[in-house]
Write a structure and sequence with these properties.
- The chain is an alpha+beta fold and 138 residues long.
- The protein has a single domain, classed as RNA-binding S4 domain (Structural Genomics Hypothetical 15.5 Kd Protein In mrcA-pckA Intergenic Region, Chain A).
- It has five helices and eight strands.
- The longest helix is centred in the last third of the chain and has 18 residues.
């Protein structure tokens, strides 16, 4: 069920973990619930419980890995649909999008110059790596 702003419906909101799953922020409801329980989701600047009801107009801050989303809820859904439908459930702030893009550029710049090894280490190289690890442990 998808409910847009200003649309009459039988319910005033949806559980936050279900909404995050339906809006495709997390792959499973369990991951969405864990994110809410560990404080990676804020509603209006406060940590909610997973059973908290999300309503149209709520401001959410969702941390997913290294990405931080600051969004406003535009619609409610308890069904996981296609991505274009899920993207209509929220609007991300311009500042949030810009900050995510800048963070991605910074991560990409930090990786510049890194060259992965051409092949796996052989037996001799593994012994040297292990020996160096032992030096750091003491």
């Amino acid at each position: 069920m998808v409910q847009q702003a200003g649309e009459p419906g039988r319910e005033a909101g949806v559980r936050i973990d279900v909404w995050l799953w339906a809006a495709r922020f997390f792959r499973t409801r369990t991951l969405a619930k864990q994110a809410v329980d560990t404080g990676k989701v804020e509603v209006g600047g406060q940590r909610p419980k997973a059973s908290r009801t999300v309503r149209v107009g709520d401001a959410l801050r969702v941390v997913r890995g290294e990405q931080v989303f600051e969004i406003e809820v535009l619609g409610l859904s308890d069904d996981r649909g296609p991505a274009p439908v899920a993207q209509q459930l929220y609007r991300e702030s311009d500042a949030s999008m810009k900050a995510r893009e800048e963070a991605a550029l910074a991560r990409r710049a930090a990786r510049d110059g890194y060259r992965p090894p051409e092949h796996r280490p052989d037996k001799r190289a593994r012994r040297l790596i292990r020996a160096l690890g032992d030096i750091d442990a003491s």
